[in-house]
Design a protein that fits this description.
Blueprint lengths: L7 E7 L5 E8 L16 E10 L4 E4 L17 E6 L3 E8 L18 E10 L2 E2 L9 E6 L6 E6 L3 E6 L4 E7 L5 E6 L6 E6 L3 E6 L2 E10 L24 E6 L6 E6 L4 E6 L8 E4 L5 E6 L7 E5 L3 E5 L2 H4 L22 E3 L4 E4 L12 E3 L5 E7 L2 E5 L17 E6 L4
Parallel strand pairs: 20-24
Antiparallel strand pairs: 1-2, 1-29, 2-3, 4-5, 5-6, 6-7, 7-8, 9-10, 10-11, 11-12, 13-14, 14-15, 15-16, 17-18, 18-19, 19-20, 21-22, 22-23, 23-25, 26-27, 27-28
Length: 413
């Protein structure tokens, strides 16, 4: 297993043209993260960058399991980064910087030569050589158990499962009646994934049985809808609020979190009780634009909204009340009795920002050796690190990114 590398971030610009870029940013010296009075090298610097064309809708580092995966076309010393936009692009990052000999943050400065090279671009159901002509991709999910698998969602109503090691599509299916906005693998499974979209439904798919999908949740129809007519289309489902994001609880993958477009509440769903939420989180006062879970050891849920708030929710006491089946494949076939919805209104922590917390809100909870939790998110273009004492981390410098940016933490190994 490769020793822990220097502290790095993947960044993508977001401008309405074909001149977007992605970059790898790192600290010149990691001591700034652990020593409050260390100011010699306080800022992030650009290690390497590459042209991306259209804005990236999602950016992720390879999962930790990729370090030991038997890749056929990848060096063990490099790392993969994936982005979506007009295509699924897989990038290979390499560095000749000396590896750190300890997991202690701050042992060595970030030095050496860094490179970011496009490895493959995938669109439709095949590999593309230049600018893609396929439908734009909205998001993707990287399988942690089998890191060669990525599933993408698209505005053309489809989801596509890719083998990035062979640059080929395993399957493409029509997932929704309208645009698909987000997709996520069931943790621990290489067969089951879920998706949400503009048709207001949350659906589960099993690659072993693609003849049908399971509808786990549908947003309620508007209360003031006119009575159905006698037209042939009267049986069609009336327009409902789209679902924008879906994320699994890493400590209990029976539970998922989602939210409606322009909605201020978070719905917590149980795969064993499809149809309605088992919990609803009410703390925001404006439209929610991002959510994310922490690690399996610290499964806090963070939500960000246009009310300039970042809220942290601890749902362990609610979700641990019910026993969870161990097998990932049993989720869709393990019903629970109807559970009464619980409403939670008090987060365990709240942060009020000066401006709206950005819609591209990727965050991670990290526990240091001192046991101090750290939450990172994007507010405009400043990188803010919130500790209990609200200490701020360095701001980005040395780049020309002036629009919204997207961040992805490199997973620890």
């Amino acid at each position: 297993m490769r020793p822990r590398s220097a502290f790095r971030l993947g960044i993508a610009s977001f401008t309405e043209n074909y001149q977007n870029r992605i970059a790898i940013a790192g600290l010149q010296d990691e001591r700034v993260l652990v020593e409050d009075d260390y100011t010699d090298y306080p800022d992030f610097v650009t290690l390497c960058e590459a042209h991306h064309g259209y804005p990236a809708t999602s950016l992720q580092w390879q999962p930790a399991s990729a370090a030991t995966h038997p890749w056929s076309q990848k060096s063990p010393s490099t790392e993969l980064l994936a982005t979506t936009g007009d295509a699924l692009r897989v990038w290979e990052y390499s560095s000749d910087a000396p590896p750190q000999s300890s997991s202690y943050v701050g042992r060595q400065p970030t030095t050496g030569t860094h490179s970011l090279v496009l490895k493959t671009a995938l669109s439709g159901q095949s590999k593309v050589q230049s600018q893609s002509t396929g439908a734009p991709l909205t998001n993707f999910s990287w399988n942690e158990k089998a890191p060669s698998l990525i599933v993408t969602s698209s505005i053309d109503t489809t989801c596509t499962v890719w083998n990035i090691d062979t640059s080929s599509a395993i399957t493409q299916l029509i997932a929704h009646d309208r645009e698909v906005y987000d997709v996520a693998w069931l943790p621990g499974s290489t067969d089951i994934f879920v998706s949400v979209g503009a048709d207001g439904s949350l659906r589960a798919f099993d690659l072993r049985s693609l003849e049908h999908s399971t509808i786990l949740y549908e947003t309620p129809a508007p209360k003031n809808m006119p009575p159905p007519s006698a037209s042939p289309s009267a049986s069609a489902r009336p327009p409902t609020s789209p679902l924008l994001r879906i994320a699994f609880n890493p400590s209990d993958s029976n539970y998922m979190s989602t939210f409606h477009m322009d909605g201020s509440d978070i719905q917590i769903l149980d795969m064993r009780s499809p149809g309605s939420p088992v919990m609803e989180l009410r703390g925001h006062h404006a439209a929610i634009n991002g959510l994310g879970w922490g690690s399996a050891e610290h499964p806090l849920l963070a939500t960000a909204a246009d009310d300039c708030q970042l809220l942290l929710w601890d749902l362990a006491s609610y979700t641990q009340a019910a026993a969870s089946p161990r097998s990932a494949g049993s989720r869709l076939n393990s019903p629970r009795p109807d559970v009464k919805k619980r409403v939670v209104t008090e987060p365990v922590m709240a942060f009020d920002g000066d401006g709206g917390v950005g819609s591209h809100c990727l965050w991670k909870i990290d526990s240091s050796s001192e046991g101090v939790g750290r939450i990172t998110y994007i507010c405009n273009v400043d990188l803010i690190s919130i500790r209990p004492e609200h200490m701020a981390a360095p701001r980005l410098s040395g780049t020309t990114y002036t629009a919204k940016i997207m961040l992805a933490w490199r997973p620890r190994r």
